[in-house]
Amino acid sequence: MKTSYLSVIFLSITLSFITITGQASLDKLDEIKLTQITGDEQDGKYGKDSAACVMNISLYLEFYKQWKNSKYTNDAIKDVIAPWRWVFLNCPKGTQNTYVHGVKIVNYMIQNEKDEAIKDKLIDTLMMVYDQRIKYFNKEGYILGRKGMDLIRLRTKDYEEAYNIFKRSVELEGNKSTGPTLVYYFRTTIKMAKTDKLDKSDIVDTYDQISEIIDYNIKANKDNAKKLTKWEIVKGNIEKEFEPYATCEDLIAIYTKKFELNPDDIDLLKKITKILDKKKCNEEQLFFDASIKLYELEPSPASAFLIGKMFMKKENYSDAVNYLKQAIEIEDEDDLADSYFYLAMCYQNLKNYPLSRKYALKSLDVKPDNGNPYILIGDLYGSSGKECGDNDLTKKVAYWAAVDKYIKAKRVDPSVAEIANSRIRSYAIHFPSLETIFFYDLQEGESYTVECWINEVTTVRAAK
């Protein structure tokens, strides 16, 4: 609904004001005519009559304060409207509060209006308040987000207009978009698809767009618990809304057609690989084909990272190593930590335990609170027991070192505690017996250096 708001704004406000005060009935509609003064006719911040402007601003603000102090319940609202309306008409650049308060005022009228025809005009009026704020005080992207939320709340049938408002808001605001704006943008996208005004691929595209913004804000607020919690809630809401459209089958069907039509579109290839990887569809042939094509067209650490993971899935560890070594130039810290960790896993499967440990430790340098590299190092040590010893003691001392790593893993990362505890129980029963320890002139609790490639100091313990 484009701005026919100009012709009805103060007519509808006046009618609502008169209705509130009981001074007129609705049959007076045709008798009330007001003409809006456009912004082009204004002289400076305070309009043509600066004294009157300042007076009316002061007057409406005083009555507004009284209304606010009553928690927006007393009759002061009746006194607010006339001076507020004058300011809106005659000095629209006077104060931004005209629009901040205007939203509250008109929303109050809408809430208390019984007549649906007048309520509909008031919604138009509210939209006009947002538009005029943008005109005189900028912040278009942010204000459009607020406008869209009020529109979809008050007039759900206008979901298409709301969708376009949210879309424009997000385009302008980018990473500065608010969480609620992103949620409603996604919901109206889904509504548009359900009514055949968009298709499923648009849902996926919007999801991809807003997920980047959400992930950016989660990372940016990792040290601000309050903001982090809010963004994690937004992320949870979006993931829940997207779930019905996020099956691998749906995603493959959507993107296979696009890939076949535009196999050399780098932006499309990035989108395909990102969304399929995120939704754990990275064993699909489309993911393989798109990843290889992306690497051919634009070799980068990010594309090498995807291909390396893909070869790991196929248990082709030698090729995975080649790509993952290129991926360690990647800028994203999480992906860098993963690149090192995947290299460690590859070398573990290739039975090169020293190199496996080397890359596991590099992963920990980047992300020290991740317990998985410690689990992996523990597994390396546990697997080396018999190869690193030649008697009843030395064949089992590597288990001490392994358990040390499992203990460290759950200490830095409680999420791996269950796995760590299971490994500890499994290896603890295979520790050397107390008799064996005494036979080799050792005491429980003393230090012991595990030799072989491990070469770590641990603590003597007997099997329980």
Q: How is this structure best described in words?
A:
The protein has about 475 residues and is mainly α. The protein contains 21 helices and two strands. Mean pLDDT is about 90; it is low at about 1-40. About 70% of the residues lie in helices and about 0% in strands. It has helices at about 5-20, 50-70, 75-90, 95-110, 115-135, 140-155, 160-175, 180-195, 200-220, 225-240, 250-260, 265-280, 285-295, 300-315, 315-325, 335-350, 355-365, 370-385, 395-410, 415-430, 435-440, and strands spanning about 445-450, 455-460. The protein has five domains: about 1-140, no CATH class; about 150-245, no CATH class; about 245-300, no CATH class; about 315-370, no CATH class; about 375-464, no CATH class. A two-stranded antiparallel ribbon has the order 1-2.
Question: What keyword list fits this structure?
Answer:
mainly alpha; 21 helices; 68% helix; elongated
The helix-strand sequence is: HHHHHHHHHHHHHHHHHHHHHEE
Summed over residues and divided by their number, the pLDDT gives a mean of 88
Cα(first) to Cα(last) distance is 77 Å
The fraction of residues in strands falls at under 5%
Gist?
This protein has 464 residues and is an all-alpha fold. Helix content is 68%, strand content 2%. The protein has 21 helices and two strands.
List the helices and strands and how they pair.
Elements: H1 5-21, H2 50-69, H3 76-90, H4 97-112, H5 116-137, H6 140-154, H7 159-173, H8 179-194, H9 200-220, H10 225-242, H11 248-261, H12 266-278, H13 285-297, H14 301-313, H15 317-327, H16 333-349, H17 353-366, H18 372-383, H19 397-412, H20 417-428, H21 434-439, E1 447-450, E2 456-459
Antiparallel strand pairs: 1-2
Helix pairs in contact: 1-5, 2-3, 3-4, 4-5, 5-6, 6-7, 7-8, 8-9, 8-10, 9-10, 11-12, 12-13, 13-14, 14-15, 14-16, 15-16, 16-17, 16-18, 17-18, 18-19, 19-20
